[in-house]
Write a structure and sequence with these properties.
A seven-stranded mixed beta sheet has the order 3-2-1-4-6-5-7, with helices on both faces. Strand 2, helix 2 and strand 3 form a beta-alpha-beta unit. It has 308 residues and is an alpha/beta fold. The chain is built from ten helices and seven strands. The chain is elongated and about 90 Å long.
Amino acid sequence: MKKTNPKVSVFIPGYNESGNVDLLLEKIGRSFIDNKLQGEVVYVNDGSTDGTGEKLETLKKKYPFLRVFHHRTNFGLTEAMKTGFLECLGEVVIFLPSDLESDPEEDIPKLFHKINEGYDIVAGWRQGRKDGKTFMSAIYNVISRKLFNVSAHDMNWIKAFRREVLDDIELRSDWHRFILMIAASKGYKIGEVKVNWYPRRAGKSKFGFWRIPKSLIDVLVVKFLLTYSKKPMLFFGPLGAGVIILGLSIDAYLGWLWFFYNTQKRPIFIFSLVLIIVGLFIFMVGFLAEMIVSINERLREIEKNEKK
């Protein structure tokens, strides 16, 4: 008999979460049964050293829906996502944390039903959060909403995806925080649902306070890349032209001084020439970037044709 793919894949990355995996899988199993969902759990053990991996292998016998993948060392959340998303077989992929700050029995049906309303991605919006990072997280989310025109209130919490969205998103180092922004830039429809937040039951948080300021810097980098990566001349062209115009304006001013007052300012003249050269160099960088983008697009087309 041919095995059918599950309708829902619950993806969970975990690092040193041995104290949480038993209850976590018990709750997911009950959620599948209560909501009559054909589902699987894809758990990526990201280099745990506290026995999480061994416990998961034992639990596979109790929970047939559990599939476990191990990293030899801790690579971080983005790499765990790359591994897990590739292995998920479901039409809908639900991303949950391993620390039970999200309750699977509540949140799996909430996310699943919301995405079936016609959304491509659904983000959970934490209610009652009390982990000491609420203020900085709120600033990050406000800046992200303004920069990317994404209406979600909680960018970095639980999510549900349609399979095609994950196939269309390329994750780089630490870009797991920007999945909603990247998807929005590609035109995917994003929804939101309120979910409850619960204190961690066991273990320690892997995310410190300083991750938030770093995220604020990264979000500016991502905005730049999403805006100009396909049309780099939109950035380099005006910048190069502005520098050249500034240099020519200085030359015009120096020419006026020389013609009417017979005054020479050689250091300023040299500076204006440097500006013109720098402007031309920026233009050249823009042209080279356009050529690289064009080559990359052709390579992607070749890859797509080969897959067909």
